[in-house]
Amino acid sequence: MTAKPITPSLSVSEQVLPQDIAALAAAGFKSVICNRPDGEGADQPSFSEIEAAAKAAGMQATYLPIVSGKVGDADALAFGAAMDSLPKPILAYCRTGTRSATLWSLSEGGRGRPLPEIIAATKSAGYDMAGVVRRIANGGRTPTDTVDASHAVVIIGGGAAGIAVAASLKARKPDLDIAIIDPADIHYYQPGWTMVGGGIFDPESTAKTMGSLIPAGVRWIKAAVAAFEPDKNVVILDGCRVVRYGQLVVTPGLKLNWAGIEGLTETLGRNGVTSNYRYDLAPYTWELVKGLERGRAVFTQPPMPIKCAGAPQKALYLSADHWYRTGRLKHIEIDFFNAGAVLFGVKEYVPALMQYIEKYKAQLHFQHRLTRVDGPARTAWFTQTKTDGTTETVETGFDMIHVVPPQVAPDFVRVSPLADAAGWVDVDQATLRHKTLPNIYSLGDVCNAPNAKTAAAARKQAPVVAHNLLKDLGAIKEEDVAYDGYGSCPLTVERGKIVLAEFGYGGKLLPSFPGWLIDGTKPSHLAWLLKEQMLPPIYWKAMLRGREWMAKPQPVTAA
């Protein structure tokens, strides 16, 4: 018998024997719940035997027998009541532990605990609650087995990737039945936030209403996704509404895990702590940069993968350039703490970037991961990983700190049957089709293709998904097309110049322009004009409207 923790107050296990009770008491358990009816198995002790052993060990025992496969709504309520009344921690058991885990899941669903949190907790204990996700989403109660909506194509997420793929599909097949599921009212041009933090763009220019961008003829379902049931071709929404799909495209972006750094959420937006990764904080970055006369400025980068791997150092360059131009740089110390081992992952761009690191006299600290921030004390702590694998804590003060949080897949994706071991949607890197669920695609930040997570990547991925999905539907006859891993990172090294990094899988350089026009390995004013004046309208008026400028996909055989 092995106790498997679900929460600090509850563990579950397979059948408990009377001789196990003393060890459970010694391990600190105060109560036992039996969810297995007497007489279910020939080698099974009766509850009275377990109760007697528990009493002798100073523990309480409760009998809540559930017939296998027949966990009722009232049973879940009774389990919750027992959890409330019994001394903790509690061990609940049945033949394998599954009934006990199910009862807890339904009970917690009724209390309002988020479904992804419930699924993650039971999954970590070794129990799969996929069979009861609708009941959990329905507040722990058995829902009606009806479908609230049905569409040929359902797209999860109305960000850059979601709207772009909807527009690409509509451009190819205008009568296609498509729905986008997204609860947000506002759509953001996130690549512009670095420029907001550098005092170049107004924040308002990076935001538009979601309704103004959903392509004509596409239904917008304004709701959040709770779970997937790919075996039934349905998506479960918050409130247990059910949407059926023929083809599913998963593009909800990623989750910025601000809580992954101790003390950060309490001090964001004040005490000199900022981040260009949030719309409301990017203006504060510029406020801090303008106001800093002397002192220490710290910039951080978390472990990969992250959204736009160049953005953490873009904040450094634009800030340092302002201090350089205003004559303050000699009074300001700049530190860049990077959890990675190199300045940039594609070596061809590093020499140009290092020239600016040296120009701004920035100190590089590799293999340093931000773990804690104390805003009022203006102090940050990093875990440094040394070459021999050992770690130590490094402390530094700051007058301003630009923080980039660790990033993970959204909770409802991470715990779903669509995810790989790391939590990202598991796709073929060329076709972007799910590896084991052929009517599901994913693109943008949430898929596990080994490319840079940028809007430029989504711009190239959307036509690939649109083509391959329509091929699956029989709407076009051509062979599959392939995504080559293209991503673009316009590294704003100073106001008026950009190192235009463009690359694909394996770090292969994939320049969009001839070298005589823009040499991406060198700072360029023309690349700056592209970033400042051309890319925003390309995003709003081309990418999100199915106009695939310089994004024509190639057949798999030619890729």
Automatic annotation (TrEMBL):
Arranged from A to Z, the UniProt key words for this protein are:
FAD, Flavoprotein, Oxidoreductase, Plasmid, Quinone, Transit peptide
Superkingdom of this protein's organism: Bacteria
Q: Which Gene Ontology terms describe the biological processes this protein takes part in?
A: sulfide oxidation, using sulfide:quinone oxidoreductase
Q: What single Pfam family name could you report for this chain, choosing any that match?
A: Pyr_redox_2
* Record-annotated FAD/NAD(P)-binding domain positions: 152-271
Q: Which NCBIfam families match?
A: TIGR01244 family sulfur transferase
Q: What is this protein called?
A: TIGR01244 family phosphatase
